[in-house]
From TrEMBL:
The chain crosses the membrane at residues 37-57, 78-102, 108-127, 134-154, 174-194, 203-221, 250-273, 285-304, 310-332. This is Membrane protein YkvI. It comes from Halobacillus naozhouensis. Keywords: Membrane, Transmembrane, Transmembrane helix. It comes from the Bacteria.
Length: 338
């Protein structure tokens, strides 16, 4: 259980980034009529995590390329390898931009907010992969606990029914691009830890635990966002619309929680990139991360919500093939064994 929890932290830390924690990503895909979509997402997410971790474990992988080759086949590996690199790069840029937007909300410089995430991000890689796993294990309880606390408090204060929208299911198709969007970074991250998984029991705990946890948080968050749907357009970060009636200290606390989400996802994205190129460049991970961040900085000027609005739906559609391959992978694997 302890080892499985370690990977739950890595998976959740990879998934809950600036887009998710702010509410912008959830509203972009879900919103009204999405209770069934969120249930389907939770199930498919667990299934995909199980497939990725099983392949990574069997390959004893230290980066994602062997896993990707098994998922999409050798003929498409080159195409999806390039897509994953671009995805990880742009997603990490979104996290850096999200840090800038968070600091800007408190009247600090946007650039100062970007620098505030860059420095610890580079320092984290001094401890290689172990540093990321350890940090995720330490900060995830605060991240999930903070989100659940605010969402449950908002539900109570607004006298909302947790199941008031459970029968609204017409947007069920949104589950597929949303799941596809989130499984691609998992290939990059979980593909780098195959040689550190010690048993298949860890895979079961990590997969079911992360899917269940994300499903519950996503449902509560989306339920809260529906109540403020008319105000979301006024906020770059929808979470701040939920917090506007609460004391300023609450906004500070949740801004810290959201910043942690950005940091863990930026670290996971960077992990996928630097482990992919380490065998070619033969440099420590912190040096590779420093070079990568230097290339990313100019792209943060596009802004947080703009990046999410255009990039995330595009990636969700492009990665549907990967999602299908992962969902079918266990059945194909069992057929080959027989």
């Amino acid at each position: 259980m302890r080892a499985g929890f370690k990977w739950v932290c890595l998976i959740i830390g990879t998934t809950i980034g600036a887009g998710y924690a702010s509410g912008r990503e959830l509203w972009q895909f879900f919103g009204q009529d999405s209770s069934l979509a969120i249930l389907l997402f939770s199930i498919m997410f667990s299934f995909c995590c199980m497939s990725i971790m099983r392949i990574s474990y069997e390959q004893r992988a230290s980066h994602y390329l062997p896993v990707l080759r098994k998922v999409v086949g050798k003929h498409l590996t080159g195409i999806y390898d390039g897509m994953i690199i671009i995805y990880l790069f742009t997603t990490t840029v979104v996290m850096l931009a999200g840090s800038g937007a968070t600091w800007q909300a408190f009247h600090f410089s946007y650039r100062l907010g970007v620098i505030a995430i860059i420095i610890p991000l580079i320092l984290l890689f001094v401890w290689d992969v172990k540093g990321i796993v350890t940090v995720n294990s330490l900060v995830l309880p605060l991240l999930i606990g903070g989100l659940l606390f605010v969402l449950l408090l908002f539900t109570h204060d607004q006298n909302l029914s947790m199941f008031g929208h459970i029968k609204e299911t017409s947007n069920w198709k949104a589950a597929f691009p949303f799941t596809a969007l989130n499984v691609v970074p998992l290939i990059a991250v979980l593909g780098a830890i195959g040689n550190k998984i010690e048993s298949r029991r860890e895979i079961w705990v990590a997969s079911i635990g992360s899917g269940l946890l994300l499903g519950v948080v996503s449902y509560l968050y989306n339920n809260s966002l529906i109540q403020i749907s008319e105000e979301i357009i006024l906020y770059e970060i929808p979470l701040f619309a939920i917090l506007k009636e609460y004391p300023f200290e609450m906004m500070i606390f949740m801004s810290i929680v959201m910043w942690i989400a950005m940091f863990t996802t930026a670290a996971s994205g960077m992990l996928g990139i630097v482990t992919r190129f380490r065998e070619y460049l033969k440099q420590p991970l912190w040096i590779l991360s420093m070079i990568t961040i230097a290339i990313m900085i100019p792209f943060t000027s596009f802004g947080f919500s703009t990046l999410i609005e255009y990039l995330y739906p595009l990636y969700g559609l492009l990665n549907l093939y990967v999602l299908g391959s992962l969902l079918l992978s266990p059945f194909i694997h069992r057929f080959k064994i027989r």
